[in-house]
## 1
Amino acid sequence: MQEEVKSAKFVISNTDVKKCPTDGFPEYAFIGRSNVGKSSLINTLTQVNGLAKTSSTPGKTLCINHFLVNEEWYIVDLPGYGYAKCSKDAREKIRKIIEGYILNRQAMTLLFVLVDSRHSPQKIDTEFMAWLGENGVPFSIIFTKADKLGKTKLDANINSYRRKLLEEWEELPPMFVTSSENKTGRAELLKYIFDINKSIKTEK
Ligand code: GTP
Ligand code: MG
């Protein structure tokens, strides 16, 4: 039987990694360009509409938001990077929040980097992944908004992404194709998370 999300609730929102929950539950964080669909995907995964705040205007999520799932693991919604229209000061503030969290959060089991499946590889994303690599941060890639493309174009874009990454990486990270609109990839992504949670429990 497919493991499911039985409960999901908002716990805390803040800008300081030191104020994040201290119970040590594993957590899975979602990062990516502003407007890529992080918050929408969180709502699709949990099947709780409006749990994470979404907006068609970029720059909606500006804090580190913790959502407790099944009382034993967290989903973390992070602010988006690269929103050109906000001030330099605001961008710098967001960069500090993101970096502070990613580099210091011991409970972060895995980071999902979301990229829009409609676009060719963007420098801002590949540079961000290179930065993760330099800092030894494990990550997986999630392609979003797959409903907006036909299969041929979608496959072509994902292949071009693979080729681009292989210019710099010896191995590709796990990749998922998703849509919050029609739930593509939801079961696969949840299985991946549940399997990691199980392996953590076995290690203990
Ligand atoms: P910030 O918090 O601003 O960084 O953005 P975000 O990455 O959390 O994006 P959000 O989930 O708020 O979604 C941005 C816009 O994209 C919204 O208008 C969503 O309805 C739309 N959107 C998100 N995911 C999908 C998807 O899978 N398919 C389609 N068609 N639209 C999507
Ligand atoms: Mg958001």
## 2
Amino acid sequence: MSLPSHVQLIDVGPRDGLQNEKQAVPAAIKMELVHRLQDAGLKNIEVTSFVSPKWVPQMADNAEVMAGIKRQAGVRYSVLTPNLQGFEAALKSAPDEIVVFGSASEAFSQKNINCSIAESIERFAPVVQAALNAGIAVRGAMSCTVGCPYEGDVAPERVAYLAGLMHGIGVQHVGVADTIGVGTPRKVQDAIEATLTHYPLSAISGHFHDTYGQALANTLMALQMGVTHFDTSVTGLGGCPYAKGATGNVATEDVVYMLHGMGIDTGIDLDKLIDAGMFISQFLQRPSQSRAANALFARRHHGA
Ligand code: HMG
Ligand code: MG
């Protein structure tokens, strides 16, 4: 087993995290969260999504947030774009990367983006082309690669099928997502192996929600397979509005703690990251979901 010396984390908290919040989060708070994340050393931040405000009202301030953030050189700002309408709106905000998001399960595709997997690929194709023509990086998120809230277990063949379609339309990098956090390491391994039939390891990231407390174990499995990119969410914020009961992504702080403890560099200052997490937790009036952040925060204040 050889482990990488450096791992790249994308903090998806401002998007995957906040999209699921019932209470309106002001644009200024979202911007402040992005600023704190970049100050903590995050080099890739998923800021918002250009989806229908009727479907996800929390992301309706996408353009305002993108216009308001003070960008740092070397940081990649990503946004979700489900169709050309979203892409054209996003383009005005000059994202560094756009994310098209499909599903390995038909039922989730219908619930989340109101179309079949095949139709979603037809919609993504011109978006991907337009982005690449504009010099914008393209990532694909693959939802439900181990389990679906509507269909149950998802076979690796479904993942390979979706990865092949994503590859066919020019998506450069794909995220293997466990949308509802039901996966265990062997299942995640199968989903990643299925993805490897179309993408090299360097173009695959792990995106693990932590509903069943498996996300850190799944991250370690992916890491041992050679995956070096992970989507994580500060304080473990979030979930998907179309995956009821699913909790947020694995907390960025927990992954950073694990990686640094293993001697793997992330470029992230864990103390500053904890402060970013405490900032948004205070706003939401909710404790952080990160075990490491809570433990380190307590030690900071009470000694241990
Ligand atoms: P639709 O209703 O099929 O779209 O929605 P449509 O093309 O038929 O248009 C209907 C209306 O929506 C029209 O407005 C359009 O203008 C508008 P009306 O004429 O009725 O006033 N519309 C839009 N408005 C703004 N931005 C757009 C846009 N497109 C159409 N881009 C659509 C299709 C995809 C838009 C819809 O289903 C939608 O917005 N879904 C939200 C999906 C979403 O954001 N889900 C959460 C993110 S995915 C996720 O969390 C999973 C991930 O983390 C990985 C994982 O964990 O699995 C990525
Ligand atoms: Mg997600």
## 3
Amino acid sequence: MGQNKPPMLGRVLIWLLVGILIAYALQGVFGVGQQDVTQISYTTFREHVTAGSVRRVTVKGEQIRGELKTEAMRVGAENDTTRYKSFITYLPSFGDDELMSALRAQGVEIETRPADDSSWWPMLLTAILPLLLIVGLGYLFITRMSSQGRNIMGVGKSKAKLYDRSQEETTFDEVAGAEGAKQELREVVEFLKEPARFEAVGGAVPKGVLLVGPPGTGKTLLARAVAGEAEVPFFSITGSDFMEMFVGVGASRVRDLFKQAKESAPAIIFIDELDSIGRHRGAGLGGGHDEREQTLNQLLSELDGFEPTQNVIVMAATNRPDILDPALLRPGRFDRRIAVNLPTARQRAAILRIHAKDKPLAKDVDLERLAKATPGLSGADLANLLNEAALNAARNDREAIENADIEEARDRILMGRERTGLVLTDEEIDLLAYHEAGHAVVAAALPHADPIHKVTIVPRGRAMGVTQQLPEKERYIYEREYMLDRLAVMMGGRAAEQLVFDTSTSGAENDLKQATQLARRMVLDWGMSEKLGPMAAGGERRQVFLGEEIAHQKNYSEATARQVDEEVKAIVDGAYARAKETIETHRDILDQVAELLKEREEIDGAEVTELLDSAGD
Ligand code: ADP
Ligand code: MG
Ligand code: ZN
């Protein structure tokens, strides 16, 4: 930003005003334009006339100006002398009957003017000056406003910045980690470059791509890299830009932005910080959010209003997907979500290498080790860390960044982080690693469980760690055995905590909730309980708000309800027992997986399976 046009017109106006004011003042006070005019007494004037030394006079009302044939001298009060040729004097109020004949006798040229004809331009000025002042000040106000990025003239215009390739030099190479996101975004770029190739194979590329991830993970950076890589116009705007200052402009800005983009298609629109407009409608308190709702509605209708074939792709970024209006996420809008996660140790090392490229590092600096010592830090934190380290080095008059500078910076940043609760102690990491390893080992060992895709102790969303399972095939029918194994996997985390540390943590909350829910459905809806037998006690499920909430209609007796609860508990307990048994059998594998997790923070499911298989041989 900040490339405001110099307010040329404004400056010209100011100088004009100042000039006019000065001229006006001079005219009034000193009577400029009548230089060398000396005021003389009427007597002196009459003497000049009698002496025949006056060449001409101009009479205007009482005022007589005149010019002498030769210079005369006037002696002032303090004996100072003034030589003059032009003079001014005033007719006595009682008049001078003889003056006319005297002048005529001397052959003086006489000019006369109407008494009230003061010269025309001061008159004009008094009329025009206030007007000029108002216009000038108004203009100043406007330019001042627009230099702060608020242009009164163009309020409704979108403030989207248009990047062109020559300006944006960020490329995907500057984004470390985030491989998945980069891959998907590359596809988007390719589509815009060669839509024909995708259309030929009937590939539909999404209209809306939403980058989702915690702050500082490089979402904006990725978008800039897309701009740098794509050879198409790239319109970028921040959500809050839609909202600022003038009521009623957000919606028209959206309209304008999409219009511009369509005109220059193929093109990319990027809306950063989408949550500032895309918040759940009606969620605001006090009803003061009409502005945002209008803007959001406009955005929704623009998203619906163009076809994928128009070659406009809308990208957006947010770190609060949870508060987005669900309407934004419906198919045909932002239907492709790309997760940008906090980096793992290996990815942190890569990010550090990128940001250390143009910084001189002393020999004792080990970026790999630093990466391992900075769990939970985002890309932005890491970039910041190296900058701080560089500042420390400069402060200490060093030519290169030494390990001590880095340690100091790291401590400061981690300390700031601890307050926000994102940095785990070693014990917490231990617990977390065993918890996830528990899920993973149970999943790998039980025959009916879905294979593991990834195990990670890098926080994802609200979860501190995740064991991701991917079903081998799409499932429509779930067997009891599958359900039971699944339940055991859910309990694996808690079981490992108990077995290894003889404690339980709050980290299992979600596991327990999910397991209880699943067990309940097994009993109530699927008739999978041995005691209750094949009956669906759950009754009708009714959709309340568009599938968001499901209300239960109880149509069973209190006695049955008690039985249901007992059955649910039995199933969950059984699952826990199986999980515990499984990890006891494979305790060595559990330890190995936990170790791997602590070291690398993320491992592939296949590694767990291999460990288990090789142990079984
Ligand atoms: P977000 O938009 O997700 O909050 P940004 O894209 O603004 O994060 O990231 C801020 C800065 O942090 C970037 O300009 C970059 O210097 C650094 N950064 C973040 N993630 C990465 C990454 N994956 N690789 C390299 N640098 C990164
Ligand atoms: Mg950002
Ligand atoms: Zn868990």
## 4
Amino acid sequence: MNYKIALIPGDGIGPEIVAEAKKVLDQVCRVYGHSFSYEEVLLGGASIDVHGVPLTDEAVETAKASDAVLMGSIGGDAKTSPWYQLEPSKRPEAGLLAIRKALNLFANLRPAYLYDELKGACPLKEEVIGDGFDMIIVRELTGGLYFGERKTVVENGVTTAVDTLTYNENEIRRIAVKAFDIAMKRNKKVTSVDKANVLDSSRLWRKVVEEVAKDYPEVALEHMLVDNCAMQLVHDPGQFDVILTENMFGDILSDEASMVTGSIGMLSSASLNETKFGLYEPSHGSAPDIAGKGIANPLATILSAAMMLRYSLDLDKEADAVEAAVQKVLTEGYRTVDIMADGMKQVGTKEMGDLIAERI
Ligand code: IPM
Ligand code: MG
């Protein structure tokens, strides 16, 4: 089959890790007889440098005209990069939020899975890790504090900043439906995370999630306050199957969840709209401190490419092959520096990409 993929290398380590994911996809094409055509799209700092803005209409159009979007990471060092001299709405992160909104990517799926081989890299004690864990965070991505009205005003010499957390019931319902659908294909448990003891938006969240749950009698639903969830993730991560939560809580909890898998360099993600279309990116950032050094871990991006094969292109067998190749390379003892351990073989970004591609 022929597919059109929009590629967003982005900033920092983005171009390096996207190159490795593309290498793996090219191998998938060779082995399974597909052909992918790639169109590069500028986003974030890379777009600011060329166009003066972090996202252009043309970039959105190219993304829309593709079957799926594969992205690296965006952003730079906030202290030293000139991008952060610009007003907030023109900075790299604003481009990422704008493309999520423009493509209506309301459902962000972030699987956090502990490979047996990486148990040593997990910062938790053995008795906490137990049999390991396998959860997926379903984060609402186009609402809440990220997209509510914001302003900074000075009144009587005092500066006040306002951000607004808004959700309507439709926005909550559609992400809840996604989470329950995913739970049906997994262990049939949804933990909906909110702050219903304080926030109105969370009380509405809980009510709507309970309504949706009625259509899924086989799925066990529990509610958990976000502060407790942050604690439970390091106390007993094995209890989770699907975590359903709003945008900001999901941002924070997914970084935490990724760290307990051993490295944020392992965590893939998919951002989907109502159709099969999606944008796939690692959950980690652009790591400007290690950009260009050839040491970044490309596995989260390669695993994001596997999610793209599965969710947007319906190429399940091919996605399985990529995931199996990652598993195999870890079993064989190859590690990038972020997951390096005694007795393992340390490799760089390109070498890791080669090792995965060779095993497809
Ligand atoms: C993420 C990132 C983004 C977010 C930033 C870069 C705007 O942290 O994808 O988790 O907060 O959503
Ligand atoms: Mg984040």
